[in-house]
């Protein structure tokens, strides 16, 4: 299909903004608002820190299941139907959690919310990437993840701003009410995108190629390490600050604010860096910086380690996502949303394992700071496998030379 090169700047901005908004909703107001909320919910007596980790695990299980559903339903016409359904599920489950202090009901709500999150996090960027590829604008794809950074900043402000006004289940009300108009606007814009079904074989059926091969397997393994490595600070950093710092210290809320502020420019930074030195080289640097961030929380107790962790992880984890997704599509251009869904599913599985391992560690008498060592090991694992990922142009040249 011939690429369209005359896309008006206003249309491009609107599409990227719509994608950013829906990611803000499901990630900022759905998933990651739980991180700054967790210390308050524990203090309110809604549940213990260990049970809070279990609730997080249920959310990540839902995220994994949502991504797996997206592997099954990845066609463009299916995305148009399921994207608004998933956003509606986010709104309903967030409203539901404002009404209960029951641990089982909280877990169920967070599980269903995770399913919605996983589907939207696959479908929205994948749909936008296909739209951008048709217009020779694929290099802009990472900008959609700015919505995650804005969502983190917004979640930090909502939690801190309402901390003395709300308690228990009521702490979810700001996120629930704000989600409604944002989800509505984002869904309306995205389901109207002009993205035809492409890559059909001689029978007219959409092309499906192998998902796993010598090029994609190491990329999947590195992404698994990234998922497990980043999720510990992104779930427990404010709680770690509460355990290590005195009452009233600015970093009790400040760690999450630092993460949020750092994530906003991160997609732009890694987009530019990937374009300048190559996505694969940028990914190696990304893993190294992120690893040093989590390591700082382990070896530098107190404010210094917390600030370094917030700065370095906040500046990198979205870069890991956008660079890996772009490399994957470059290696397998006919996979599109299916490849994205598989990667998010794997990421979701490792994210689910992280809080579960933390709960086991805490129940066994371990400390939260030592549990961050799991993240260090996972990121080191991921960094190693990035070096086994071929450059897409080399991979295609070797396959073409072999006649494949």
From TrEMBL:
InterPro entries: MFS_4 (IPR010645), MFS_trans_sf (IPR036259), Sugar_transporter_CS (IPR005829). It is found in: Membrane. Keywords: Membrane, Transmembrane, Transmembrane helix. One of its GO terms (molecular function) is transmembrane transporter activity. It is a multi-pass membrane protein. Pfam families: MFS_4. Gene3D superfamilies: MFS general substrate transporter like domains. The chain crosses the membrane at residues 12-34, 54-74, 81-99, 111-134, 143-166, 172-191, 220-241, 247-270, 369-389. Signal peptide: none annotated. GO terms for cellular component: plasma membrane. This is Uncharacterized protein. It comes from Marinobacter santoriniensis NKSG1. The lineage of its organism: Bacteria, Pseudomonadati, Pseudomonadota, Gammaproteobacteria, Pseudomonadales.
